[in-house]
Amino acid sequence: MCGIVGYTGRRECRDILVNSLKKLEYRGYDSAGIAVIENGSIKTIKAKGKISEGLESKLAETGKLDAVTGIGHTRWATHGEPSDINSHPIGNSRITIVHNGIIENYRKLKSFLIDKGYNFESETDTETVAKLLDYYYTGNPIEAISKAVTDIEGAYALGIMFKDYPDMIYAVRKDSPLIVGSGNGEMFIASDMTALLEYTKEYYLLETGEIASIRADGVSFCDLHGNKLTKQIQTATWDVSEAEKGGFEHFMLKEIHEQPSAVKKTVSPRIKDGLPCFEECGLTDEMLRNYHHIYIIACGSAMHAGMIGKYIIESLARTPVIVDIASEFRYRNPLLKSDDLVVIVSQSGETADTKAALELANEVGADTLALVNVVGSSIAREAKMVMYTYAGPEISVASTKAYMVQSAFMYLLAFRVSLARGAISEDECRTLVKKLEEIPDLISDCISDLDPYRKAASRLIGADSLLYIGRGLDYALSMEGSLKLKEISYIHSESYAAGELKHGTISLIDDGMPVIAVATQRELLAKTISNMREVKTRGAYVIAVCPKGTAIDAESADEIIEIPAADDMLMPLVAVVPLQLIAYYASVLRGNDVDKPRNLAKSVTVE
Ligand code: M6R
Predict the structure, then answer these.
(1) What is the structure's pLDDT at 97?
(2) Percent of the chain with pLDDT over 70
């Protein structure tokens, strides 16, 4: 899950490559590098660390580069520690490459190449590809690429430069994303469109088994046998400003603020005559009536959105919903049948485990519906049906607006399944839809004053560990709150079903341990309050998150964060906002890199 870019055109390419790479840093930031062709020679500059730390200092020492063709890479280390030597581009004086993915048979290829007299410098799997290309190269790039990728097992998106073809970039991919951007007298490659929005909105999606030969005035495509291919150019709908901070200190804060409009954009086009409508993907009421089970499969925050889906679909439509972590689902021989619906949820549409789960569901013959944010991503293309969330580009590694719109979509699905199955009437459905449409204003209310969240966060930053507790939908939401905090503040936390504490976990509570209690479900309030008291009497510092006017006294909570009230069922869409902001400020106050937390990358394209 690295980011790759490439440029060939008339402009000096160094700054274009670095600028585009910065847009992809969310994919990995262990090291970064570029290679350009200057005066007929390949010149490589690369360094450990984020672009602003390593690569830019080296480039400052290097000075101007007289080059109009180059490739670049930002790395999330898998094979070989983050270091200068393991950074990309990797190659020799005649061929150099950037790679996103994992070469599974690299050990075998490496010993083959060592037998042929090659020496290896790095610990990366990528170096075997660079050397393999060199081994096969006899003057024809397409032939060398075809032969090399035929030997490779695993996932790859490769940007390749040959010294002999100084105006060209070559690209090939399997299972890792890659697009070819088309500008005016200049062409690009990138892992995704966010890298290129500043330069062009026109692009081609490279498919597995296709090779792109790119020069300043255009691109030609062929298959691995050299047969010419014709491809359709696409136009991105995202705007360049959406991939910039726009005055906010961090992308995460900006993305939290974009949630009201993201919900509107995702929900509104799916409402027809006051009712949810899935015509765009061909999901009919008859189909919804006949599914035996609904599976929701995803990873991380997307899976947590699925948990909200499970609670509301089951309680409203009385239809069984199984939520599965994609990496578990695919290896546990699930009881999936061809009359089930599998909803695959993914912001990036590239998450390796989620994609593999989709492939499994397709193999079984189940109907698959992808709920994806990135248009044209692998998951969107491989599912039988696709519906897009309209969150716009999400840059911060911690998901906020993508989780929000995935959860909002779960309500649309729950309402339509309930209607199709006769669990609610059309009038009831219209009322629910209306309430859902009011949510964006309540989210805006929530973010009109950020002080309570900053204050709550300041209470947490000294803690070694804390708990999030809740019941029902509040428990589903606690999972997301806890993940967000861990991910960016590095404070350990667990989410617990409040009623389960007494079965072991309550022994963790000692003096001053923070407990965040989510208490938005009126039916469960008395019980949640009892659980808050139980931890408070044992020394916990309880911060309650609840709708305005909820009767919670000083015996139950030390601090209360009041949020606007909505229908209980819809409260997760409002209550997640304080949890996101508490995590955000905890990270800021601890001096962390909010948008690029350690050890992580946004797009997890490895298992
Ligand atoms: O792109 P995806 O939605 O498939 O990503 C799934 C998870 O990797 C993602 O939600 C992750 O958990 C976030 N970093 C959490 O904030």
Answers:
(1) 97
(2) 100
pTM: 0.86
CATH homologous superfamily for 445-594? Glucose-6-phosphate isomerase like protein; domain 1 (3.40.50.10490)
CATH class, domain 3-242, is: alpha beta
**What is the CATH superfamily name and number for domain 248-437?**
Glucose-6-phosphate isomerase like protein; domain 1 (3.40.50.10490)
Q: Is 300 near ligand 1, meaning CB less than 6 Å away? A: yes
Q: How is the beta sheet containing 559-563 ordered, strand by strand?
A: 492-497, 465-470, 514-518, 541-547, 559-563
Q: How far is the CA of 47 from the centre of ligand 1 (A)?
A: 27
Best mutation site among 379, 399, 593, 596 for ligand 1, i.e. most ligand atoms within 8 A of its Cβ?
A: 399
**What are the helix and strand counts (H, E) for the chain?**
18, 27
Q: Could you tell me the distance, in angstroms and rounded to a whole number, from the CA of residue 393 to the centre of ligand 1? A: 13
Chain center to CA of 293: 26
Q: Is pLDDT above 80 for 244?
A: yes
Answer for the pair 140, 174: CB distance below 8 angstroms, yes or no: no
Whether residue 488 contacts residue 400, with contact meaning beta carbons closer than 8 Å, is answered with no
- Choosing from 46, 355, 486, 602, which is the catalytic residue? 602
Q: How many CA atoms lie within 13 A of 119 on its CB side?
A: 2
Could you tell me the residue ranges of all domains in the chain?
Answer: 3-242, 248-437, 445-594
**In the predicted model, is pLDDT for residue 603 greater than 80?**
no
C-alpha distances in Å from residue 134, one per residue of 82, 163, 368: 25, 11, 42
- Residue 223's pLDDT is 97
602 is catalytic: yes
Cα separation, 529 vs 546, whole angstroms: 11
Mean pLDDT lowest for which of 15-29, 87-101, 239-253, 362-376?
A: 239-253
Q: Is 2 among the residues known to form the active site?
A: yes
The dihedral through the CA atoms of 270, 440, 601, 182 has a sign that is positive
> 445-594: same fold as 248-437?
yes
Q: Are 548 and 449 in contact (CB under 8 A)?
A: no
The reply to whether ligand 1 has any atom less than 6 angstroms from the CB of 1 is: no
User: Exactly one of 2, 299, 446, 546 is catalytic; which is it?
Assistant: 2
SS3 368: strand
Worst-scoring range by mean pLDDT, 12-16, 242-246, 415-419?
A: 242-246
Place 413 in a pLDDT band, splitting at 50, 70 and 90: very high
One-character DSSP codes across 242-305: GGS-TT-SSHHHHHHHTHHHHHHHHHGGGEETTEE--GGGT--HHHHHH-S-EEEEE-HHHHHH
CA distance 477 to 481: 6
The predicted structure's pLDDT at residue 427: 98
Chain segment 304-359, per-residue pLDDT in tens: 999 999 999 999 999 999 999 999 998 999 999 999 999 999 999 999 999 999 99
Element (H, E) at 496: strand 492-497
Distance 80 CA to ligand 1 centre (A): 24
Indicate whether 5 pLDDT > 90. Answer: yes
